[in-house]
Amino acid sequence: MSALFEPITLREVTIPNRVWMPPMCQYSAEPEGPLAGVPHDWHLAHYGARATGGTGLIIVEATAVSPEGRISPYDLGLWNDTQVEAFRRITRFLTAQGVVPAIQLAHGGRKASTDQPWRGGAPVGPEAHGWQPVAPSAVSFDERHPVPTELTVDQIQEIVGQFADAARRALAAGFDVAEVHGAHGYLINEFLSPYSNQRTDAYGGSYENRTRFALEVVDAVRAVWPEEKPVFFRISATDWLQDGGWTADDTVRFARDLHAHGVDLLDVSTGGNVSGATIPTGPGYQVPFAARVKAETPLPVAAVGLITEAEQAAKILANGEADAVLLGRELLRNPSWARHAARELGGEVNVPDQYHRSV
Ligand SMILES: Cc1cc2nc3c(=O)[nH]c(=O)nc-3n(C[C@H](O)[C@H](O)[C@H](O)COP(=O)(O)O)c2cc1C
Fold first, then answer.
1. 8 A C-beta contact, residue 313 and residue 307
2. E strand or H helix at 93, and its extent?
3. What's the gap between Cα 193 and its chain centre?
4. Closest residue by Cα to residue 351 from 18, 7, 16, 61
């Protein structure tokens, strides 16, 4: 039987299989008012479908630690108790299906305040529920985006605190795993990469300084997240620049640091920090980055990016390239992918009693 259908235990949390759902923004919350950032029927149905489909772990979409940290005004958030209550409904359902509920905690940095992608995804200002974005340096992502406000050290510390508060709320909401969003050109990624971080203080310049904010966030989250529950970190393993930027070598070095700071798994993505970078996409194109971290560090890894076929996913695990696979768009197309893969490869995943006649 493929390892795809074997459980994995991280700290004291056992995940029933290795077919996982990565965070995918739904851009569907209210942009303002008492229901801002609050999950509702759509989110329950969306995550619920993947849960009844046999997925082992579901990482709820990028959830902002503050209103200004939202990628779009329609993002979910964890900055108040109304949000905690609403998330409980989702974690309760996922847990009842035997799925481990995880959540990605995020701050959008200089790429915050954009419209829903199906409306073009352009940066928006106050006239469309938007705001002025912040970043390590006053450098815009591209000509469409505004120049962000450079964060002061006090403001950086405040955001570290917001990550801790959001993690505390995620725990109260019933999540078993907290994932820190350090990828795709959002705030933490912006600090890591010399391409977007041009600071000359303790948060910029050397590798140690550029990784300081990320590690402070990890420490703050780890401090409030129970010993027995895992913390994940999502990274963009490369900026995909020919020369300079954040590189795969940096990722390997940083993975060792993350491990030393109590991170339990690296979710290995790439890109998003450099507008117009050439990315050679294709089936499993990011897997080699995960495989390198797995081979060269003690940190378990999950691979993501154009993994769509059962055989392909099984091979990634059999080759020892990753400990789990994440399927994004394929799970949007087929919420029961894990069940189909189990039938194809001769394995088993959780099937709700209500669906027993379809096993
Ligand atoms: C609609 C959509 C929303 C996404 N939102 C997020 C997000 O909230 N956080 C994140 O780290 N990645 C996000 N991603 C990236 C996915 O997690 C995943 O890494 C990417 O889609 C590549 O995997 P795939 O080829 O299996 O789709 C999103 C992708 C899609 C398609």
1. yes
2. helix 81-96
3. 18
4. 16
Mean pLDDT of 275-297: 98
Contacts (Cβ under 8 Å, ≥6 apart) of 194: 210, 244, 245, 246
According to DSSP, residue 355 is labeled G
Question: How do residues 195-250 score in pLDDT, each as one tens digit?
Answer: 999 999 999 999 999 999 999 999 999 999 999 999 999 999 999 999 999 999 99
pLDDT of the residue at 258:
99
Would you say residue 262 has pLDDT above 90?
A: yes
Say how many Å lie between the CA of residue 61 and the centre of ligand 1: 8
For the chain, give me the number of helices (H) and strands (E)?
11, 13
Sequence-distant (6+) residues with CB within 8 A of 348 are 5, 342
For residue 146, count CB atoms less than 10 angstroms from its CB and return exposed for 0-12, middle for 13-18, buried for 19 or more. Answer: middle
Structural domain count of the chain: 1
Atom of ligand 1 nearest to the CA of 330: 26
In the chain, pLDDT over 90 holds for what percent of residues?
99
Amino acid at 137: S
Q: List the domain range (segments joined by +) for residue 72.
A: 3-358
Q: What is the pLDDT of residue 1?
A: 87
CATH number of the domain bearing residue 349: 3.20.20.70
- The whole-number pLDDT of residue 106 equals 99
The CB density around residue 118, as the number of other CB atoms within 10 Å, is 7
Q: What is the largest CA-CA distance in the chain?
A: 63
Residue 278 burial by CB count (10 A; 0-12/13-18/19+): exposed, middle or buried? exposed
Q: Whose CA is nearest to atom 30 of ligand 1?
A: 24
Mean pLDDT for all residues in the chain: 98
**Catalytic residue set:** 186
Residue with the smallest CA separation from ligand 1 atom 10 is: 23
pLDDT grade for 359, boundaries at 50, 70 and 90: confident
Q: How far apart are CA 117 and CA 189, in angstroms?
A: 21
Ligand 1, residues at Cβ distance < 6 Å = 22-25, 61-62, 104, 181, 183-184, 234, 269, 304-307, 327-330
pLDDT score, position 308: 98
Q: How far are the Cα atoms of 38, 72, 290, 299 from residue 323, in angstroms, in the given order?
A: 32, 32, 9, 10
**pTM score of the predicted model:** 0.99
Amino acid at 76: L
